[in-house]
């Protein structure tokens, strides 16, 4: 299946480089390019994109607000957003996830990693960087000024489901969760799907937010 990708970045050279890379992949097609957040929202509606590669800093409407508008549009329910960031804008990552992004990458990501990230997010998985960035996300999600999570809390989860949610928040994929808990990959996937249903979460990125904001996972344990 071909992944229809919309590129949103205010730098024409960056868009051109990404477009060239994506068009070299047999399973991807660039269906539009936007220089502003507002253009990204409009093109997401008209170009029937599966995924938007979204820069954060753009004129007219920034990438976070554009992501929020896309995530809130019922007609764009199947559109995923992969946010691009740089090291000096990491403080926006948690806000981007709140807005509805399914993952993020830094702009110096290797070409092959970008392509794989697009496939991962388009396939319904969340892409969250582990290590220091995960701890940074936790710090912002646990800040006193943070609003309550959009999805429900983990109180209604079983002990096993709480274990799985903790591992999701640490950035583990289904295969890694299965290996850690001694489960089959199918069982791990079933647990994740059931947790998403119980919490009303759209994807794994929202599960991470719930895990941190509920206190199930804290910055000191997410590494």
UniProtKB/TrEMBL annotation:
It holds the Pfam family Response_reg. InterPro entries: CheY-like_superfamily, NreC/VraR/RcsB-like_REC, Sig_transdc_resp-reg_C-effctor, Sig_transdc_resp-reg_receiver, Tscrpt_reg_LuxR_C, WalR-like. The modification 4-aspartylphosphate is found at residue 55. One of its GO terms (molecular function) is DNA binding. SUPFAM superfamilies: C-terminal effector domain of the bipartite response regulators, CheY-like. One of its GO terms (biological process) is phosphorelay signal transduction system. Transmembrane segments: none annotated. PROSITE patterns: HTH_LUXR_2 (PS50043), RESPONSE_REGULATORY (PS50110). Keywords: DNA-binding, Phosphoprotein, Transcription, Transcription regulation. Residues 4-122 form the Response regulatory domain. The keyword Glycoprotein does not apply. Residues 150-215 form the HTH luxR-type domain. This is DNA-binding response regulator. It comes from Streptomyces albiflavescens. The lineage of its organism: Bacteria, Bacillati, Actinomycetota, Actinomycetes, Kitasatosporales.
